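Fold this sequence, please.
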Amino acid sequence: MTYAVKEMFLTLQGEGVNAGSRAVFVRFSGCNLWSGRERDRATAVCRFCDTDFVGVDGVGGGRFASADMLAAAVEGYWGDGRDGRFVVLTGGEPMLQIDDAVVDALHAADFRIAVESNGTLPTHPRIDWVCISPKAGSHVVQRRGDELKLVWPQAGIDPAALEPWDFTHRLVQPLDDADAAANRTAAVALVMDRPRWRLSLQTHKLLGMR
């Protein structure tokens, strides 16, 4: 199988429970909730995505002919030393491409694997950290994992309906758009009203990092 990657880079995880952790980000191309093209945004299931996941022309991106080649590229970004190796597989929707071979190759290179998914496809059972970010209007099948990340506000999602899902952590992240200030206020209000949730901020944006 050939793997299409928009970009790959070394950074700090900017949001969620693992915020502040050194990580290699692998952004896979493609998504099943939006084409990634502006002309299709108005009719997409997910309309607020702020990420470019179209094509393979980003820094570190490309088409990798094998999982071993992909894992070798991830190792190259991490550099020397095998302690604390951590890779975040994201997108787009990474579960369109993640398979046994990718998971095995990254584990063989001593990477702890995290995935950030919209939950409409089952995650691989051997991924070490599962973060699901549900989108209004989609059917979420992956209702268990480590981290449930709700971008807020979202019309059509009731946080109370998500609370029975089997996640260790429940996070509310303010939607970053033209109404960002109001969205932060709404996210804080949700957490104050429903203490099973915690606030998550996009610290990489505050730091000016990718």
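Residues 3-206 form a domain with the TIM Barrel fold (CATH 3.20.20.70). The two ends are 28 Å apart (CA to CA).
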